[in-house]
Each structure stands twice: as C-alpha cells, then as structure tokens.
Specification:
With about 450 residues, this protein is of the alpha/beta class. Helix content is about 45%, strand content about 10%. The strands form three sheets. Strands 6-7-5-8-9-10 form a six-stranded mixed β-sheet, sandwiched between helices. A hairpin with a 2-residue loop joins strand 6 (about 255-260) and strand 7 (about 265-270). One of its GO terms (cellular component) is heterotrimeric G-protein complex.
Length: about 450
C-alpha cells in the first residue's frame, strides 16, 4: 500500500497541483475542441449546456443523428411521417378549394354570358318629359296590358292615393277661391262652414277620410261658385288626375319589365319635376329609344316649380335640350303628344285660346298630310297638329340624320289608345334596336 501511494505521484503526477490548476481554471470557459480528462474518463464539453454524455467509451456530440439513441431515431421517423401526412392532407384540401373556386368562376362566366345575351335582346325605353305629362300613367297601362295589371295590395294602396287626390283637389279649389283675381264667391254662402272644415283638415297627414269629409266635399262640388273656380284651374296648381287617373308624384327612377310576343321590354319612368331631372343621366346609357311625353293640354298652364313658366314652353325647352344632347345624338325619340282628350275639351270650350299663349298659332295652317280622326272637330285638329309641329320644328332644325322623331297622339287613360299606339311603335323600336347593335 505504501509503495502504491509513494509511486502515485510518479504515475499520475502531482494531483494537488492538478486540482489547484483545475480550480483556478474553472472560471475560464473550456475549449470546446479539446476534451479534458478527470479520473481517467474521456469527456466532451457540451458547449455550455451543462451536461457531458458518454456512450460506450465514445464521445457523443449533441445533434449527431448517427449517434442518437435508437428510440430517438424512431420518434423522428414518426414525426416526419406525420408531417408528410399533414402536408398531403393540406395539399388535397387546397386542390379541393381550387376546384370549387374554379367551378364558381365558370358559373359566374356562364351567368354573365347569359345576362349579356339577354341584355342585347332587351329593348330599353326611357320615359322622359316635364312634370305631370302622363309618364307614370303610360307605365300603368303597360302593366295593365302586359303584366296582368295590379295585385290586391297595390289596388288597396291606390284607393288611398285616390282619396288623397280628392282631398288635395277640394282643398286646392276652395283655397284658390279667395286668392284668385278677382276672387270667386260661394253661390250658397251657407256652405262657408264646409270650407272651414275642409281647410281645418288640410294639414293633417294621417286622416281617416270619414263620411263627414265626403259629404262636405260633395256638397261643395255642387256649389256653382266652386265649379266656377274649377273652370279657372289653369290659374293655380290643381292635379288633373279611378286607378289610372290617381296622381302620385314620381321621385326617383322606376323600372317596369314586360314582354310582348316574346320580346323583352324594360321601361324606365323618372320624375319630371326640375329637381328630378338630374337623375336622368343614370338611364341614358345604352337605351334603345326615348319616349318623350307631352301634356298637350298644358298650353294655358304654368309649372308647379315657379308658377310662372308656361308648361308647354317648358316641355319644348326640355325636348330641345334632350334632342341636342351630345350623349343622345344617336337615340331616336318617340313623341307622345298626350292628353288629347283634355286638349279637345279646352279647345271646344273656347275659354282659353291657344293664340293667347302662343301668338304664332294665329298664322298656323294645317299641313296637307294631316289626317283628322273620324268626327273630329277641325278646331281640335288644327290645335293638335300645331303642337306637334312645334316639336318637329326643333327636331328638323338640328337633325343630322343620326336620330329621328316619331310623333303620336295619345290619351294615356285610354287603354285601347295606348295599346294601338304602342303596337305601332314596336316596329320602330325594333329597327332602333337592330341599328343600335349594328345588325341593320
């Protein structure tokens, strides 16, 4: 034993010095490339991980796959398999999504193609004209003739509109009796309390239209003074409008679709008042034809907006601006000279002469091609052709052969008249449509 201990320094060197050196060097980081020996065991620095691994006397380097334990290698293979399965599943799902999107895209293309074909086969008609010329009544006639009329709910709403028209009309008349110059008195002064009642309910928007109201309205209408005031209705704003005649101010743009002999028509009705006209430009693009509606009987009336401008002159100015509009130089106009029934009544009554409002009428002579209706009074024939020629004068003065004006005499509340006129216009519209798509 003593020999062993005495030979120890010779065999292993000075252990105390080694220990002291090791202790002094412990504060310095070991060299990762050079292994250190302690107790005869071969060790490898872990590079700061705080652990040293020994396997079968060999040095194991962390991250060396060739020297990982067998269990770890199997785990890595499973992970790779799972990742591969996940990638395959994701790829399959992406392919399904792409196929689904491609199918949706093809369906959209098919629908767009069908819509384009339908669009080219559709005749789009834009209804234009000054306020209260009868545009909306024309649309109603199209619904009656080609869209099975009105349903029960719409008829119920029209009843309310008609009642409101009655109220508005009687309120307007009795209010005008005292404001006209000269004023119009009641023939029966005892009916004054009825006027007071009518004026009291005038501002009510939620009115139940009791029997009392209708009794007062009927009694007042029987008064000769009220009738005399009605005869002077051209001096104030009185609505001139059953279902066709009821008047509702059109605000905005309304589309009516109907089909005649398997041909699709889209008719756009827009407001005719001045503040509504700025919306018309939205409908100008790619229309087949413009139907311009004129209230022929309005030659002695003023527009609602300023109570000063003559309504027929306003219609002429509007027609001129549309005819000369650079965006519409290729779109022909079908001119509906409407309200022929009311024009005939005014002309034959003789109370409002056209020459008082249009001095040029005194020098007007009926053209040779003018054909009167059977049994029509010559005075009515002369009046309606004068109004027609006023519009044709505008179209011929600035026409360049790219668009044309086709006049028709109409009575919008006469269903048969509108049926006949529209049938006459269908050939014109068809030619316009073919020319529009360069098929003619």
């Amino acid at each position: 034993m003593g020999l062993c201990y005495s030979l120890r320094p010779r065999l292993f060197g000075d252990l105390s010095g080694s220990i002291s050196n090791a202790t002094s060097d412990s504060d310095q980081p070991p060299d990762a490339a050079v292994p250190t020996r302690a107790g005869g065991a071969r060790q490898e620095d872990t590079g700061g991980c705080g652990e040293t691994s020994s396997l079968r006397g060999g040095l194991v380097r962390p991250g060396d796959p060739a020297r990982l334990p067998a269990g770890d290698g199997k785990g890595t293979g499973k992970d790779r398999g799972r990742r591969l399965q996940l990638l395959q599943k994701t790829s399959t799902q992406k392919q399904k999504n792409c196929d689904k999107l491609l199918k949706v895209s093809k369906n959209i293309d098919r629908v767009l193609k069908e819509l384009k074909r339908e669009y080219k086969q559709t005749h789009r008609l834009l209804l234009l004209g000054a306020g209260e010329s009868g545009k909306s009544t024309i649309v109603k006639q199209m619904r009656i003739l080609h869209v099975n009329g009105f349903n029960a709910e719409e008829k119920k709403q029209k009843i309310q509109d008609i009642r409101k028209n009655v109220k508005d009309a009687i309120v307007t008349i009795v209010s005008a009796m005292s404001t006209l110059i000269p004023p119009v008195p009641l023939a029966n002064p005892e009916d004054q309390f009825r006027i007071d009642y009518i004026k009291s309910i005038a501002p009510l928007s939620d009115f139940d239209y009791s029997q009392e109201f209708f009794d007062h309205a009927k009694k007042l209408w029987d008064d000769e003074g009220v009738k005399a005031c009605f005869e002077r209705s051209n001096e104030y704003q009185l609505i001139d409008c059953d279902l066709l005649r009821c008047r509702v101010l059109t605000s905005g743009i309304f589309e009516t679709r109907f089909q005649v002999d398997k041909v699709n028509f889209h008719m756009f009705d827009v407001g005719g008042q001045r503040d509504e006209r700025r919306k018309w430009i939205q409908c100008f693009n790619d229309v087949t034809a413009i139907i311009f509606v004129v209230a022929s009987s309005s030659y002695n009336m003023v527009i609602r907006e300023d109570n000063n401008t003559n309504r027929l002159r306003e219609a002429l100015d509007l027609f001129r601006s549309i005819w000369n509009n650079r965006w519409l130089r290729t779109i022909s106009v079908i001119l509906f000279l409407n309200k022929q029934d009311m024009l005939a009544e005014k002309v034959l009554a003789g109370k409002s002469k056209i020459e008082d409002y249009f001095p040029e009428y005194a020098r007007y002579t009926i053209p040779n091609e003018a054909t009167p209706e059977p049994g029509e009074d010559p005075r009515v024939t002369r009046a309606k052709f004068f109004i027609r020629d006023e519009f044709l004068r505008i179209s011929t003065a600035s026409g360049d052969g790219r668009h044309y004006c086709y006049p028709h005499f109409t009575c919008a509340v006469d269903t048969e008249n509108i049926r006949r006129v529209f049938n006459d216009c269908r050939d014109i519209i068809q030619r316009m449509h073919l020319r529009q798509y360069e098929l003619l």
